[in-house]
Amino acid sequence: MASEKIDEVYEEKQHQAAYIFDPSGDFDEATRPAKRRRVSKKLEASQAHDTKTTSSFQCLLGGAELETAVTLRKETFEKLWSVIGSRIHGILRETNQSTLQDVSLFLRNASEYTPVGKIPSAFIITGPNIASQDLLFEQLSETLHNEANAQTVRLRSGDASNLRAVLRKIIQDVVSKDTSTGDELDTTTGKDGRKFLNYDLEGLYSYLKLASQKNLVVIAFQDSEAFDSGLLSDLISLLSSWLVRIPFAFLFGVATSVELFEARLLKSTCQSLYGDQFDVEQTASIIDKIFKTAVAHSQTPILLGPNFLGNLLERQREQVASIPDFIMSLKYAYMCHFYANPLSFLVPDGLSSGALQPDHIELLRCLPSFQQSIEVAIKNNKIDQAKIMLHDDEALVGYLVDSLKQRGQWVTRLLRVLKILITSKAITADFSDLYMDISHNGLDSSNQYNQFFDSIKRMDPGDCEEYLLKLLETMQHGDRSLGLDPWFDEVPETFALLSEILASIKQLRVETADEGHVLRSKYSGQSKILRTTVVAQKVQLSQDTATLTDHDKSYTDLIHRFLEHLESIMHVDGALDMPFNEVWLYDSRFPYKDVFIPRPRNVLERALSRPHDYLSRSCCKTSVDQITSTLPTTAILYQLYLETGSLINAADIWSAYYAIVGEDDEEGLDERPALLLFYRAMAEMKAMGFVKQSRKKADHVAKLAWKGL
Amino acid sequence: MVRTKQQQQDVAETTLRSSSRKRSRAAVDETEASTPSKRRSSRPASTSANNARSEYDFPSDDERVELEGEETPKKRGRSSATAHAQANGEISTPRGRKSKGISVVTPSRSRGVANGETPRRQRNDRSARKKSARALIEKVVEGVSSDEEVDEDIAREIYESSEDEEDVEDGAPNGRNYEEDTEEIPDEAATPSKKSRGRAKAKKGTRTRKKSPTPPRDLPPHELYFAQNRPGAAKTSNNTLASLKLLTHEEYFSLLHDYKEPHEDDIDFLDSIHVQSFPQWVFELSQGFSVCLYGYGSKRALLHRFAKHVYNTISDHGNHRIVIVNGYVRANMSSLRDILSVISSAIDPKHKLAAGGASVMMENLKSLLSSHDVTITVVLNSIDAAPLRRPGFQPILAQLAAHPQIQFICSADTPDFTLLWDSSLRSSFSFVFHDCTTFCPFTTELEVVDDVHELLGRKARRVGGKEGVTYVLRSLTENAKNLYRLLVGEVLVAMDDEGDFSNENPGVEYRMIYNKAVEEFICSSEMAFRTLLKEFHDHQMITSRKDVLGTELLSVPFPKDELEGILEDIV
User: What is the pLDDT of residues A181-233, one digit of tens each?
Assistant: First the structure.
């Protein structure tokens, strides 16, 4: 009964542009008391929260998951993401801070040094990232309002269809922003009772006079390149003529360069501007910062793997370059992890919550990483231990707790190693690339970073000293952006050794300098010889090594010790080698790709050319490209369509279609129903933009899309 | 008019062969294949007396002219444009005949004959050139873009005149040479000669196929594109849907009512898969994402079920409301205003949004939202529907979707909908996309009958044929009736003159009609004349266009038989 009613509504309202969906239809909207809601608002809000929890997360483990675990997953997600989200937000706020200060300072003092008759203008070089402009200009208008006591009108090229519309928007925005004096009359009528048109700046003037403060009116052109240059010139010259009465100032968001922007304006217009240029931190560096705080940070509960991150970063660099997108993608990865991974609630300290149920233990035993660790144990002849883990739940849980703890240490070690690597100048790769590589593959003595060790070998004493200094500093201070605490007191021997080497090198340098000698190691010497061998004989090479002084030898020893130590401490496992990494590792590129980079056209083409991929029925299963009458009409028509040239005769395609579905066999359609389907399919093809009307010939349509292009 | 005059002159000169010509005209009517062959194949019928005569017995008058036609391009070496074509024409034409057993001697003999008749040939050249030049002008003026189209135009024009004057034939290759790849000429000349007259209609089809054989199946997409867009490749038949009675709205809906979808089970199954992801969508919506469903098929029913699902999970309906928006509704062009005001009434039924532009309303709506603790789920059907594609819509929708209190889920039907948004809009929508191929027919979203008729170039609102016209005329004044009769009569006469129905009806000059109308006391002033015409325009009973010289031409958009019926009715 109820569903019938709903369907009725559904059919009834299908031609309405918009309506409120209310299947119960119990209360009349107009007479609904507003009071009731306000009284019980808080209570209801909390209730709503509860019901949402149960509804949006699904039971996993084939429905065996208990509700507490489901709730826990959701809560864990919300808790963890809110931390990360706020960290990211903080970064975003910070990044624009210096620009904001500069701009507001400029505008505050503009009146003092701007020549008469010129409008103070700030050109903000935003770069191509128009997606994050909104945030920037929002912050700007906020800051200007607070610090320079200015009213900011934000204009986008979309708002500015003509001069009148722009003026109207400027006036409306200035007036409506000031909510304290919300009297609309003030804007439309002058003192003498005269009415102003809504695009008359006189109205704005009288309004500002009433407001009695000498407020700056800042007009921000967010995407100044997209504005029509004629319109912009008109607007600027108009506003500059009002400058005496209304103090205007401009903000231009410039994506390219001020010179290009200037070239688009009239010379006379340019002369009425007086401005300065402000740089905004570019997307790449912001992304890097966000990467450090949200992905690589020591407190991040989830490790994102290179499959996912690589895709994300590549898309970021090559295609979108939009910070909100990046953040949302990260968020989506978290959502996926907690939504679909039943073990995800274990991430921070889920064991204490007691939500662990037998099914979870079963699942834990099936994890590949666990099985791997059992295999390792058996190989090492610890069969008893393996047996206990397989049979005793308590032992398993104990092991789990240990492993999760280990994970924290592992992250710290990873970050320290990364820090050591990145401090060196020899590593040219991005931090993010290094992070992805090492977190996934691990780092051991035999591998890919030989280049790094080589460079240390060949270091000049000066460089070496500098590097050691930096290293010691990092150990003493950690890295706040990565959440890395100082760790020199944790590894006193390393710290002591490095300090000792540093001191010795310093001393050696002083001594050699006294002797008028240049300190070098065996390796650096060789490298110098290598350069000279291009002209010299081979004999010289051995002579040169022989001439190493005692100082050089002791420096070489120091380098050796340094290298040995580095090699001994630079050792990290790959994430996949960690037991129970499935709990905290998310590395799937698929939901991300499907969800953020849709390929609607391919999907549509696939649906139409191979409908049996979607419709499971056997009748639609045909060999490739074969047309049968049982296919959906549009699919048949689409097949025919694929074979046509750029001009399609509707009569011919109709007869071809009718030949396929027609009455020849016993199941065939009569002409009129076939025509109905033909009509419907043609209308769909038109709506999807495959065909359009052609005037070249009667009853012909033009083909607009080619499959696979 | 000019053309007929010239044709008459030609006719006067070549009366000798008129009998054969007439017959060939009757047979040739529908095809546009190059003329020489046609005439050749029709010749046995025309000269039935000496049926046994073979082509290489002795050159008849016909033969001579034909050969002359083949030779002319060579003679006209002064035209550089045709120079290249000569070689081809020369080589290929004889080859076609060789297969029929023609000795090499014949051409050389006839060449001598042709040489003797210079004056006539020159004149022929001139007329053919005029024609192709005109075609060129028309091409430029009308903006006809593709080559094959022009080629056809020229061929047709030349062909029309060849009904009266065979000599003009030699213009055909010339005319083509202006436009076409030279390689087409041997083809055209050679192929038809192998065909028999009786299969004139089929021949058209086979010829096209021979010239552009269906490309192999497994071409990569880009190759297929070029194969299908090859200049000259896209020859389509002249069939029209004239014989098919098109669907009316009534018939459409009654048929639709009786029709049962054979794939219903599968569609339901597909639907059930999508329904399973409802909780996921709810989660995504609750986390500040907007959801966009794409894929083939109508997603309206699915979204409606989703709305139901959301409704059932809401505990307090005062705090969380659902607004369904149908983007495809086209009658209502101010739908953005509607959408916003419905949303505002969902927040607070008593609140009236400030009048003004959409952005003002949006600001107003935002402040309204911030003062109420409500969540609104906006379910938008077809975000890429034509009404929502107008400028200004998408930014507002993006602002709406970006609002934290608004959850936004929409569907998109076209394959290229992502082009609607630039990166800024896209990130304020913050969409997650889901493939929701449903295979459901678009029942409400599309106005099927109107769409298809528009696609076919038939105006949906046009009065329906003969009955419609008589119905309209019945309500008009006597003068209007007379004017329409006059117009239909003139158009019919023009049709008879041109004898070509493949394209639009021929037009008659506005001035001429006006003068005649004045003569017949239908109207006294041009003003009155215009007023009468306007009535016809409103019912789309006449069409008017301008020709190359800017003369206004009036015509009637009905096929010939219907026109005759109308004329009978009025008279």
Answer: 444 444 455 556 667 777 788 888 877 777 666 678 889 988 888 888 888 88
Q: Nearest-CA neighbor of B427 among A566, A33, A131? A: A131
Q: What is the largest CA-CA distance in chain B?
A: 102
User: Cβ separation of B236 and A614 shorter than 8 Å?
Assistant: no
Give the distance from CA B455 to its chain's centroid. Answer: 7
- A676 in Cβ contact with A701 (< 8 Å): no
| Residue of A17, A620, A705 with shortest CB distance to B326 | A17
Number of other CB atoms surrounding residue B560 within 10 Å: 13
Rounded distance between C-alpha atoms, residue A380 and residue A391, angstroms: 19
Residue of B nearest to A43 (CA): B316
**Confidence band for B306, pLDDT divided at 50, 70 and 90:** very high
Across the interface, do B349 and A695 touch by the CB < 8 Å criterion? no
Q: What is the interface size between A and B, counted as CB pairs within 8 Å?
A: 340
Contact B234 A335 (CB under 8 A): no
The pTM score is 0.69
B132, B76 in Cβ contact below 8 A?
no
- CB A151 within 8 Å of CB A216: yes
Residue type, A646: S
Q: What angle do CA A402, A407, A409 make, to 5 degrees?
A: 100
Nearest to A128, CA basis, from A272, A320, A301: A320
- Give the residue from chain B lying closest to A169, CA to CA: B360
Measured distance CA(B39)–CA(B20) in Å, rounded: 9
Distance (Å, whole) CA B344 – CA A311: 41
* Average pLDDT score, chain A: 79
Bridge partner list, A253: A124
DSSP state of A517: -
- B417 CB neighbours in chain A (<8 A) are 600
Tell me the percentage of chain A whose pLDDT exceeds 70.
Answer: 83
Q: Which percentage of chain B shows pLDDT scores above 90?
A: 9
Please report how many Cα atoms fall inside a 13 Å half-sphere around the Cα of residue B331, on the Cβ side. 8
What is the pLDDT confidence band of residue B193, given thresholds at 50, 70 and 90? Answer: very low
The answer to whether B137 touches B183, Cβ cutoff 8 Å, is: no
| A18 token code pair | 């918009």
Of the candidates A26, A572, A635, the one whose C-alpha atom is nearest the C-alpha of residue A303 is: A572
Q: Does B225 touch chain A (CB under 8 A)?
A: yes
Dist CA A581 CA A436 (whole Å): 15
Structure tokens at A356: 């662990």
- Residues with Cβ < 8 Å from A373, sequence gap 6 or more? A579
CB of A222 closer than 8 Å to CB of A138:
no
Judge whether B424 and A325 are in contact, CB under 8 Å. no
Disruptive mutation site among A24, A47, A52, A614 for chain B (greatest number of B CBs within 10 Å): A614
Q: Amino acid letter at A145?
A: H
- Distance CA(B327)–CA(B303), nearest Å, equals 13
E strands, B327-424, are 375-381, 406-411
Distances (CA, A) of B127 to A451, B37, B134: 83, 21, 11
Phi first, then psi: what are they for A621, rounded to 5°? -80, 105
Q: State the ipTM, two decimals.
A: 0.82
- In this prediction, residue B348 has a pLDDT band, given cuts at 50, 70 and 90, of confident
Average pLDDT over residues A596-609: 89
Number of Cβ within a 10 Å radius of residue A124: 27
**Mean pLDDT over residues B476-481, rounded?**
84
Confidence of residue A388 (pLDDT cuts 50, 70, 90): confident
Strands A150-155 and B406-411: unpaired
Residues 70-109, chain B: which have Cβ within 8 Å of A? none
What separation, in Å, do the N-terminal and C-terminal C-alpha atoms of chain A show?
A: 49
Contacts of A652 in chain B (CB under 8 A): 236-237, 239
